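Ex. 9. Protein: DUF6090 family protein.
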Amino acid sequence: MKIFRKIRQRLLTENKFSKYLIYAIGEIVLVVIGILIALQINNWNQARKDNQTLKEYLGKIKVHTLEDLRILDTLTKYRTQTATQCKKARVRILDKTEDQDLILFMSCGVAFADYYFKPNTSGYEALKNSAYFGKINNTPLDSLLTSYYSIVEDIAENEKSYNEYVVNQETYLSTQFDTSLILASAFLPQDSLKIRATPQSEYYQVFAEYTASAPYRNVVSLAAFQLDAMVYQYSQLKYVGTRVIEEIDVQTKD
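Predicted structure tokens for DUF6090 family protein:
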């Protein structure tokens, strides 16, 4: 700046106005260039900060998606085992041979469990409500996330329909049967039951009547095919979820 001041003073004292004017314009251009460079640096720093914040949001979504996939693996295993048992029981019903395998029908009681898939959506909701969501608009990740949470909604509807039906049937059954013996035979150790006053034959008789009832068989029949539909939806979600994780890895790669 001292050099610039000396140049201005020399030009003014020598009355070289035209040269001073050219110099002044040049100095203004230098100032403008400096401002533009400063703005560019500031924009670059802000973009870097924004990208880092977006990566943090995407990192949370990745962690939550991985949690979802682990839960889906557990639910898939449970639903598949239950559906397999109920299919065998349905064949017994159609063949009218259910009395030959009461243990099989007892195992179908797990079809009454009202499990729900509860994904962790907090990371995705946080991104949607932030100023950074626009950065993934119209990208493959945006499309994958939309597909992922659309399937989540379909699963929720399917599970709700099944579980509400099961609860209604179970509620009706509880008004028709004394389930104390059924629960005892299902959850108490056999050695403990043998020392009770109630004979083993009575436990089996009550359970035979219980499993022969229409509400119980309705649930078994429903589970035989609807649980397969749930497992298929789980597999769809796992596939899309895996692609979400892969796309996040691409976008967050340094």
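Check your answer against this statement. The two ends are 41 Å apart (CA to CA).
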